[in-house]
Every structure is written in structure tokens, then in C-alpha cells.
Amino acid sequence: MDVGAAVVNGSNSRGFLARLRLLFFGDPARRFAWVSLLLTLSLAVSPLKDFFRQWRGYQRQYASYIKSRPDAKALRSRMEPGIHQIWLPRLGVVDRCTTCHLGINEPTLAGASVPEPFRAHPAIPHNPESWGCTVCHRGQGPATKVEEAHEITDSWEQPILPGRFIQASCGTCHYNDLAQAPRLDRGRRLLARLDCTGCHKIAGIARPAMLAPDLTDIGTKVSREWIYKWLKEPRTITDANGNQTVDGVDVGEPRMPTFRLTDAELRDLSAYLSVQRVHPVQPYPFDPRVVAALAKRPDLADQGEARFRQMFCSTCHSLAVTRAGETTLIGGDIGPELTKVGSKVNPDWLVDWLRNPQQYLPNSQMPRYEWSDKDLYEVTQYMERRLTDPSLLADVPHLAPPTEAEIDAGRKLFTDKGCASCHAIQGIPAQKDFGPDLSTIGARNVSQLDFGPAKIPRTLTSYLEAKVSNPLSVNPAGRMPQYHLDKASLTDVTTALLSLTGPPPTLGMEKLMVVQSAAEFHPAGEFGKLYEQYKCYACHKFNGFGGTLAPDLSYEGSRARRAWMIQFMLNPQTVRPTLIFRMPQFNMSKQEATIIADYLKMVMQSPIVDPGVDRKQFTPAMAAAGKELYEKKYACQSCHTIGSAGGYVGPSLSSAGNWLTPGWIEAWLRNPQALVPGTIEPRRNFTSEEIQDLTAYILSLKQGSAPAESTAGAGAAASSSAGGSK
Amino acid sequence: MNRRVLLISAVSAALVSGCARKAAPVKINPLENAYATETDWNNPDHVIPLNYRQAEGKRIFYEQCVWCHADQTPAGPSNRSNVTPAPPLWNDGKTLNPLADAYLEKFTAEGGSAMGQSPMMPPYGRTLTRSEIQAVIAYARAIADPPYNSPATSVQKK
To answer: Which residues of A touch B157 (CB under 8 A)?
Structure first.
């Protein structure tokens, strides 16, 4: 009590301190009491520090959050306090993320309304319990602090991967196409399409035989002025954003990037390229009677245009169409767009090219058509007269004949700029690995990156985006040319680059790799010749090799009847009512069509289709039962057309009896996906008898002139040759 | 004597409250999220964000279902007019919202005949996996017009 009075009475600080000393250390008992108290407090620091750890805060928050949920009791019973850890020794995973992300495996905590970090993980094929978190999300698994787990620290350089790039992680193991990761797939396709492999080594993307046109004879094809213009800005048809859109679908952009060349460099390079004429072009001697008959006709170009359309040039080439002020390209993107080709190429070269494209470019995908002089004359006249733009070269300065000095400087520039990485040319060896190897770019540490003057976040993702969208922003002296990618394409390409993390870090993961199926199919013999002449593989797939535009022909020999195939190649017609038909008419001879049909029939067979199924075993009674099943029980007409009635999701079955083999129909009805993976025909649960009856009915559907060999199953054919449900 | 405790608790309170702050609503850039959004079929200005499952459903829908359950398809005209009775549009909330997930899943897996409805709806149980069918239904819920309220949310509201 006296102490209290002393404090109250204290009037100056000196007296106050003295009294304070008295208060604390006045006698041994007091001294001891205070020291003990201090000791207890200092001992309490450790448990307190533990109590206030960040993750404990989250666990307390979670505990109070789940009280508001309808299933609070169940959630509470599954919540275990303490540090959680997913330890997968085989994968090299030690992830403590679930210490704070407590609702990961709670399906009732799904949805954006649940606050992070408590939200459930979406249901994906790889559940977090058996894969861990950092395998896909990156970050520092063992860390228990928010910053250390998610961000770059002094000792950890692989931060959390931003959500929009997450599909990159799928690509670190799945080297094949993966439908569930569309962004990754598109990014990989763009890396291939934009010829990134010209300069960079990229794991999983092979260097094709020809990246860009061989320039050995470029001087016979285009003028120096055109080369100048092209090198300055290699795109003639673009929308307001500089992108190229084909059929409304953005295809990225023209493959040739912009090289930022000065006027002097453009003059030198165009001089060098314009003198590349190793094989001079001779004017083709058209039959004078053809020229005499056609040259004066006022509708010559119209005729040529009609022929251009009939030959399905637009399957691979697009033309710009301007509607309501918006320019879009209509057609395919396998070959270059041709809107202004008449103002680009030398007319003699064009005729020469169309007659035999593979002579000028041995690895071109352009088929060699069989031309009549009349067709060739009409089509080339159409292209030279209509596909033009008189002002195409208006902004090109006057260029005098090339001088020796210009040509020499141009030759040097050709290698300095890395042109020989993609283009072959006589006298200059191909340049390989002109740019850095990108095989492990997706795993690069930030400390290994040179951001140059760029004012961007110091992360790998922002570096890659900056480098791809504007290479000079991170390296003003860089050699990489300028691409013009829209925002979505940029994200896709960055995603694909981030997936390039090199070989897996642990043996356990190496065993999980889904390797890429590399396929080559180059048959020899007579068929091989025709296969190369008509470039069947530009659109069709054969045993995993080839294009995706047209049906996979790997099992065509099992599917189609020989006579139908020959007929189809001579006069292609679509079997799909709503599909834009694209198969060109190559004007091939009957003998050629027969060689192709025989090869497909003999070689391109499915092991699960029985080639020996006899058409005779299918009776009209079975066909009648099949018709009943088709129309009533299974309502196949909702997707298939017979005659003029039915749906147009699947192919028309109007003359399926002429088209398909009985073995194929049976196997298809058993399991369509076994024959064509990914086909949208649903797999049904037919009984064997139903399959027999439906096969009999489908075989009975014949329309028009039946191919010569169809003698079998005549009874069934007679029963409903008109085909068709009412 | 309480100062230190006070200090510790103040700091940790700040820490905890810092962690508790709510994330700002994420702005959706339609181009950026082409795979993770769907434009409202009835309102081109309304872009609907999709979560992983819904986006997966969108992908499968546009492969398998769009031909009959939409009026426009990526390949041109829809097959919907060839099917009688006309199948519901996949964003038709009026028709689909009252139907439970489990019912729609069974309908899709076993087909119309099995459910006493039109045989024109084929069964997908042997073509798509269960989780793929569920994803397509999740996608329908996401784009439903009028919007779909899940039973879980209505329980909460009670």
C-alpha cells in the first residue's frame, strides 16, 4: 500500500526512478518474484510464436468458416489440426500445401463462393492425394509460409505457375496431343506452324523436311520489288490487328515473321534473292488451237474461276473476301492465301508450277494435278487477271538492276539474319541452331534470365510473354524476328514453352511420361508414286501420319468397297450432307484410281474387321427387321439421312450398300470408337442379332448406279433400292 | 508487463487479418480465357466464366452434343430441326433447371428410350465416362438461362 502512495506522491523523475527501483528490487523476495516472472514470459515466447504461425491462423479461420456450412459436422470431423503433408517418394513430392488449403478434397466446398485457400480442387483425372500439388502448380512444396510456398525467394526460383498457364504442366508428362488441354495443344501447334524449330531446338517438335520455300529459283518466280515489299512486311492480307483469319478462325499469322530490315538491307537482300535463277523457266507451249479458241472470249476469267472452284483449290488456299467493311480469308490454310497472287508471280512460272509443283519445290504439299491445256490456260488466266492488286507494289521505291556490291551484301545478310535456318538456297549451307535451345526453357530459373531494359515482373512467365510478343523489349540487340500474336495465341505459345521442362526430375516420374507417337508413312512402288503426286497425306492420315483435314484412311481398305473407292476418286462426292466438301478432283486416270484402291484394299486394313463376311448371308427378312430397328427402336434417322429424310450429323446412308463392306458395318455397330477413336457416333449395346439385322438393312441401301462388282446380296438390294424412310 | 504480449498479439492479429482479406473479383478477358468462358447464348455481351469442370463440359458438349442441343454449330446448320420432338437447347434453364443432376446423368447415359422418352436421344454411357457426362451437365448449369440455383445453395439460404 505504501508503494502506491509513493507513486502518487512522486513529483520529480529522480524520485520516481528511485521508487521504481525500490518497487522491483526492494528486497530479495521482490527481486526473485520479478526475475521468475521474466523467465516465465521468455519461456512463453516459443509456444506463443508457434501459436501465431501463419498456417495455424488459416486452420483457425477454416474451423470457423466451416461452421457456416450445412455439412459443418462432417467437415469438422475430417479436419485434422497440424501440418499436413503429401509425401510421394517416387515422384519426389513433399507438399505441405494442404496445411492451409484444407478443403482440397471436400467436394461440398467447390465453387467460387468458397473463399481461398479453402476451396475444393476441381475433379481432375489426377487427384492431389496421389500426385501432390507442386507437380502441376509448381511452388515450394515443403514451405509452410505463404510467401515461401508461392513466390520466388532467395533459395527457391520456381514460383507458383499462374492459373492461365496451368496446362503447361500437363505437357511436362503428356507429350501427345491432349484434348483436355486445348491451350497447350494450340500452343504446340503454333510453335510448329510458326516454324520456331527453324532456329530453336524444341523437344517434341521435329524439324520438317521443308520449313519455308526453297529459294534456289526465287528469281524466276517473283520480282525484286515484290521481294522488297515482302521482306519489309510479310503479310498482304490482315485485319485491323494485323492478324490473319481464315474462315473466321484465327490461324495465328503468316508464318514468315517481320525482320525489321532497313531500306539498305532490303535493297541488298532483294538484289541477292532476285538473281537466284538456277533453273530458268521456259514459257509453256500451249496448244495454239486452245489459246486461239479461248483468248478472245470475254468470259475467259469467269470460266477460269469456275474451274478454280471445281478443282477445290480453296481446300488449301484462301482468298480474301470483304463483307461489310471486314476482310476475312475464306478457304483453307494448308497453302498460302492467293488473293493477290496475280500481282506477285511471273505468269510463266505460274504455269510451270501448276504443271509440276514438286519440280520447283520437292517437299511441297501441293498435289500435281493432271491438267488439260484448256483447264490450265483458263485457271492461270483467271489468276493473272482477277487475283490482282495494281497498288500492291506502290510503296516500293524504284529499284535499279542489282549491282555486284548489293548482291554480295545481300548474300552476307542472308546468313547474318539466319534466313538459311528455314530457307534452302544454293551456295549457302543450312543454318542449324541459330537460336538458343528451348528444350528446358520452361524450367529456367529467373536468375538465369536477362530482362534487359524491360520493366516487367521478374518471373519466367512474364519474360516469355515479353520475349515472344516483342523480342527487343528484353534484348534490344536480339536477332529474333517480330511475330504478331494476339493475346490468346501469346498465352497459348507461352503455355507450350512453359511445358518444355526437360527430362523429368525423378525416375518415378520418368516412368509416367506419355511419349509422343512419332509416325512416318512413305509407301514405295506404284502407290507410293501416286501418294506423292497427289499428296494424299496433306489432308488424310495414314497409320498416324498425315493431315487432319480429311478422314483417316488407315482402315479405309476395311471400310469401303473397291469399286466405290475407284468411283469416288474419279468423281469425288461427299457422303456428308452438311460438310464443306473439300476433296479435289485430280483428273486422275482410271488406272491410277485402281492402283490406289487396290493398295488401300490390301494394306490399310483394321485387324478387328472381318474381311470375309459374306453379303449373301443377309436376307431380305433380316433387312426388314433391321429397318424396323433403324427407324423405331434406335431412331438412327435422328443423325443419318437416307434419301432426303433424316439428320445430318452422321454420313448419309443413302447408298451405304454400295459404299461400305459388311464386315465394317458389323464392327462399327459393335464399337465405333474402336475403328475411329473420337468419332461421335455413340457406342450402343446392340445384341448380335440386332447387329446382323441392321447390317442387312444398311447393305440394302443403294442409290443411283451400282458399281459393277455388286452382285452379292441382290435380294436385299432389290427390297429397298429406293432407300429411305418416309 | 503486458506490452510484449500486446505487441505479439497486435502483430499476429494484423497478420491473420491480412490473410483473411478477400480477393478482388477477377476480371474476365474473353480472348484471354477463350477456353474458360462461354458467351451467353442469348446475350453476346454477357461472358460467363467457367470453372475447370464446366470448361471440360463445354469441350465435350461442342464435340458430341452441339449438333442437336444448339441452334448453331461450329460446322454450320444444327441438326435440331431434324429431330422430333425438338431436343432442349442446352442453355434452356426453364426445361433443364427443374431436372436433378442425377436424372440428367441417367438420361444421358441410358438414352431416351430407357427413360420413357424419345428414342432419338441415344445413350452415351458407353461412349462418355461418368465424369464426362457430369461435366456436360455442369456446363448446362453454368450457361442456363434463367440461371440455375444448385440445391446446395438453396439449402444454405434456408
So the answer is: none
* pLDDT < 50: residue spans in chain B: 1-2, 5-32, 153-158
Please state the ipTM of this predicted complex.
0.78
* Fold adopted by A615-719: Cytochrome Bc1 Complex; Chain D, domain 2 (1.10.760)
The pLDDT, as a whole number, for residue A492 is 92
Domain ranges in chain A are: 2-51, 54-160, 173-201+435-501, 218-386, 525-603, 615-719
Q: What is the pLDDT of residues A537-587, one digit of tens each?
A: 999 999 989 888 888 999 999 999 999 999 999 888 776 665 666 788 888
- Kindly give, in sequence order, each residue whose CB lies less than 8 Å from that of residue A570, ignoring residues fewer than 6 positions away: A588, A590, A593
Chain A residues whose CB is inside 8 A of the B82 CB are 637-638, 646-648
Which CATH number does A218-386 carry? 1.10.760.10
List the 179-218 stretch of A: residues with Cβ below 8 A of B: 179-180, 182-183
Q: Do A632 and B119 touch (CB under 8 A)?
A: yes
CATH of domain A525-603: 1.10.760.10
The DSSP H or E segment spanning B72 is strand B72-73
* A647 Cβ under 8 Å from any chain B Cβ: yes
Architecture of the domain spanning B27-150: Orthogonal Bundle (1.10)
- pLDDT per residue over A93-147, tens digit each? 899 999 999 999 898 898 778 888 999 988 888 888 889 999 999 999 999 999 9
DSSP secondary structure letters along A181-212 = -HHHHHHHHHHHHTTGGGTS--TT-PPPS-SS
Q: Do A61 and B23 touch (CB under 8 A)?
A: no
Q: How far is CA A66 from CA A103, A111, A144, A279, in A?
A: 10, 14, 22, 79
Say if B97 is an interface residue toward chain A (CB within 8 Å): no
Q: Of A113, A116, A578, which is closest to B77 when you measure between CB atoms?
A: A578
- B37: which DSSP letter? E
pLDDT of residue A101: 94
Whole-number average pLDDT of chain A: 86
